[in-house]
């Protein structure tokens, strides 16, 4: 294969960054917002801070969008908070919530930044969980429909790129981490009923978007972790295929083909699983045609065969940021995940593997032939200001440079990719390690301890924004549409 020295990006390619409401906004009890299930989950991650303040984006919107514009963004991927928009079971729309997002969207449009908006990124209102039964109950479908309709009607005149549900696959495959399995007695079986209800919500949102938003496009956001076989042993290849099915392929097939795959139906039959499909459900799923696939990809995994006699092991993510604490899962008779000796690891034991982004884009394009956009990709690290108050995040620059190069190669390979939005614009709350695990191009000058103290005192810290070195580097790269790389590239070798 021949490539230019640097890959070329399409002229109208959208460059930006990414966030999610509960991880960035803070102001959890302001202007009518009510609690979300993820608020409670975030309180279980002590000593790290919960999401009460996060990056305090709620009070820094204008400043944050001005920084995006300064960096040269042409897109910004963020999510709407369901309990900020529909705070109670009477279904009334909270105008203060609508105004907050109207201001954000107007501010973005004023700076020629395309909003890419996620409907659901883990913040189900607590009232949906307590009064309707949450994802375990079909009553949630109507509540979600009302919420989605409200969003499309309020923002659809300006928002044309919509994302339905963030990482449904990860919410199911690793149900404990984000609390989705809470309240289920038999997660092995119950997960498929929960999954089916989320699929119906996704399908409802897809159809509503097409009905209500003129020129609106919508897609799902799978969390993609490409799986490599640990060796050329034939059973390691089967193990890699199994891991791929149970962590991502099952979901992607359902979104694209509008039906459950033969693989999944056989699995349900063999394990006496009833996913709770009712009359009309299959027709709804088949009628929902997605326009693109949004891709979150940070890392790869490596799979090895696990015989039926193997001891099962649940996946345990690294909860401290001290290397070596992640425990890979073992699923007897299907697969186990193992360390990859060919890549390096972050402090949270995530594989640093830029080639995984090229692989995943190639994989999705080959399987589904739908436009793609990258909605998450990034490097989580411990970070501190130096004596001059600056943040020199060379490791993040290296990560992003290598990943974006691989993205460019995927485009040269023929994949249709329309936008790149790394995680995250500012530092924000991670899913389990507070603000200690930082991803941002912009530093938020606050620590978990300070956030914890602020909650006790009731005084919100300034959360000063400081541009990291990666901000300056990324700005040069994107304003030159991918020609100013500012350093050598390893070409993944
Ligand atoms: C993605 C999620 O899976 O990974 C984000 O969509 C999350 O919400 C991101 O923050 C990084 O994960 P973590 O655990 O480091 O915050």
Bound molecules: 6-O-phosphono-beta-D-glucopyranose
The portion of residues assigned to helices is: 25-40%
Task: Give the name of the CATH architecture.
Answer: Alpha-Beta Barrel
Radius of gyration: 21 Å
CATH superfamily: Glycosidases
Strand order in space, largest sheet: 5-4-3-2-1-14-13-7
- Count of β-strands: 16
Distance between the termini: 15 Å
The amount of beta strand, in percent, is 5-15%
Q: Work out the count of structural domains.
A: 1
CATH fold description: TIM Barrel
| Main pleated-sheet profile | 8 strands, parallel
- The shape is globular
Structural class of the helix and strand makeup?
Answer: alpha/beta
Stretches where pLDDT is under 50 for at least 5 consecutive residues are none
Average pLDDT taken over every residue: 96
Q: How large is the count of helical segments?
A: 16
CATH C-level label: Alpha Beta
Structural account:
This protein has 493 residues and is α/β, with parallel strands linked by helices. A hairpin with a 5-residue loop joins strand 11 (344-345) and strand 12. An eight-stranded parallel beta sheet has the order 5-4-3-2-1-14-13-7. The chain has a four-stranded mixed beta sheet with strand order 6-8-10-9. A two-stranded antiparallel ribbon has the order 11-12. The protein has 16 helices and 16 strands. The chain is 39% helix and 13% strand. The mean pLDDT is 96. The longest helix has 26 residues, at 187-212. It is globular. It has helices spanning 21-24, 37-42, 61-71, 82-85, 95-110, 126-132, 139-155, 168-173, 187-212, 234-257, 262-270, 281-287, 355-368, 394-412, 448-457, 469-479, and strands at residues 14-18, 75-79, 114-120, 161-166, 217-221, 227-229, 293-296, 301-304, 330-331, 335-338, 344-345, 351-352, 372-376, 417-420, 442-444, 465-467. It has one domain: TIM Barrel (Alpha-Beta Barrel), CATH 3.20.20.80. Helix 9 crosses helix 12. The chain starts with 13 loop residues before the first strand and ends in a 14-residue tail after the last helix. Bound molecules: 6-O-phosphono-beta-D-glucopyranose.
């Amino acid at each position: 294969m021949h490539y230019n020295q640097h890959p070329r990006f399409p002229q109208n390619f959208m460059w930006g960054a990414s966030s999610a409401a509960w991880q960035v906004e803070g102001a959890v009890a302001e202007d009518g917002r009510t609690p979300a299930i993820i608020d409670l989950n975030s309180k279980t991650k002590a000593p790290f801070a919960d999401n009460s303040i996060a990056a305090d984006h709620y009070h820094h919107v204008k400043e944050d969008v001005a920084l995006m514009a300064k960096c040269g963004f042409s897109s910004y991927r963020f999510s709407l908070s369901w309990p900020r928009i529909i705070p109670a079971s009477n279904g009334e729309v909270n105008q203060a919530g609508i105004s907050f997002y109207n201001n954000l969207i107007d501010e973005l449009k004023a700076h020629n930044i395309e909003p890419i908006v996620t409907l659901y990124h883990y913040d189900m209102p607590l009232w949906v969980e307590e009064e309707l039964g949450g994802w375990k109950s079909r009553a949630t479908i109507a509540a979600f429909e009302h919420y989605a309709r409200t969003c499309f009607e309020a923002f659809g005149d300006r928002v044309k790129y919509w994302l339905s549900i963030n990482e449904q696959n990860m919410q199911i495959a690793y149900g404990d981490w984000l609390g989705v399995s809470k309240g289920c007695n038999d997660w092995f079986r119950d997960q498929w009923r929960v999954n089916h209800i989320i699929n119906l919500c996704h399908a409802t949102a897809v159809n509503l978007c097409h009905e209500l938003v003129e020129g609106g496009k919508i897609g799902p956001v799978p969390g993609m972790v490409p799986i490599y076989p640990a060796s050329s042993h034939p059973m390691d290849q089967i193990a890699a295929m199994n891991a791929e099915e149970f962590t991502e392929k099952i979901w992607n097939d359902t979104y694209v083909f509008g039906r459950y795959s033969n693989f999944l139906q056989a699995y349900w039959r063999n394990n006496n699983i009833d996913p709770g499909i009712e009359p009309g459900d299959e027709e709804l799923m088949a009628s929902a045609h997605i326009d693109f696939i949004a891709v979150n990809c940070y890392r790869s995994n490596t799979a090895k065969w696990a015989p039926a006699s193997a001891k099962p092991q649940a996946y345990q993510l690294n909860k401290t940021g001290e290397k070596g604490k992640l425990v890979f899962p073992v699923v007897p008779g299907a697969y186990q995940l193992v360390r990859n000796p060919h890549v390096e690891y972050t402090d949270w034991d995530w594989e640093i593997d830029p080639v995984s982004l090229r692989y995943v884009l190639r994989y999705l394009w080959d399987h589904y032939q739908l436009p793609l956009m990258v909605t998450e990709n990034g490097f989580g690290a411990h970070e501190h200001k130096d004596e001059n108050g600056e943040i020199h995040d060379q490791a993040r620059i290296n990560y992003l440079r290598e990943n974006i190069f691989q993205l460019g190669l995927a485009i040269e390979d023929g994949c249709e990719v329309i936008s790149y939005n790394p995680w995250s614009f500012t530092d924000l709350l991670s899913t389990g390690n507070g603000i200690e695990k930082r991803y941002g191009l912009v530093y938020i000058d606050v620590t978990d301890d300070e956030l914890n103290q602020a909650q006790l005192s009731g005084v919100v810290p300034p959360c000063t924004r400081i541009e990291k070195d990666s901000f300056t580097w990324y700005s040069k790269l994107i304003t030159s549409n991918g020609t100013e790389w500012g350093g050598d590239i390893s070409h993944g070798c």
